[in-house]
Design goal:
Number of helices: 10
Helix content: 25-40%
Bound molecules: zinc ion
CATH class of the largest domain: Alpha Beta
CATH topology of the largest domain: Hsp33 domain
Largest sheet: 6 strands, mixed
CATH superfamily of the largest domain: Hsp33 domain
Number of domains: 2
Radius of gyration: 21 Å
Strand content: 25-35%
CATH architecture of the largest domain: 3-Layer(bab) Sandwich
Shape: globular
Oligomer: single chain
Length: about 300
Amino acid sequence: MKDQLIRITAADNQIRGFFIQHTQTVEKAREIHNLSPVASAALGRSMGAAVMMAQTLKSDNQKVTLRINGGGPIGTILCVAQKNGTVKGLVDDPLVETVNKTPGKMDVGAAVGTDGEITLIKDLGMKQPYIGTYALTTGEIAEDLTAYLMHSEQQPSSVGLSVLVDVDYHIKEAGGFIIQVLPEITEEALRLLEARLLGLPPLSQILEENTDAKALMEVVMEGLDPVITEELEPMFLCDCSRERMEQALISLGEKEIHDMIHEDGGAEITCHFCLSAYQFKREEMEALLKEATTKE
Ligand SMILES: [Zn+2]
């Protein structure tokens, strides 16, 4: 089944929401980075959050970068998502050991840690990006994003994120939601929404029973008159290219490039997000060296 991301309004435009089912996307990340189960859960939840947050941007070429570092053994989690649904992500230690809280329930918070921050950078195509940051509270990511949105963006939200990993480490289900209330919401609509959210079974259970984003949404928003306004297919897609790697090499400067030519006879640069390797031969490096020299 294709991954799916939908945007909705509900209760007469008093509520807006984003729902995602992105099992394939998380599986792709797992294959690229050889993620351990808890790393799949931490990165998968973060990628879901980033790609849903990217839906609040105005145009397709704008980006959201989500960075989480809680001082735990996984290190930094970094995701970059675009409004068109593409997302890329990495963690410092993809092989981080999986510890369970209870049998079958991974302790994502222990891998991520709570001594640090969640940072959201919105590149709106202007000179300065918008950067918001808030202290981590649980390292479980959904709770941290909820607190971030409340305190840093003054946006009351409910965030749910879940990744189910099979015994063979494949991703069984990955999905989630961000539900936000708009300022003019009536007491009645707010009460209905709160009651609905409080009465929900665990998200992992809903995902097991409802394997697409629309079905997930219908369960969560039951009784709140949801209307789907947008639908797209999220996917793991890296935007690295040979041209970008050339620019990165040039920016290292004359001396670095010179040393690479003389010590290694060329260079190999690997993209941290998708692990694609780009080889540069001696002649190509010499051309880049010329460019770097004229720049300086
Ligand atoms: Zn790449």
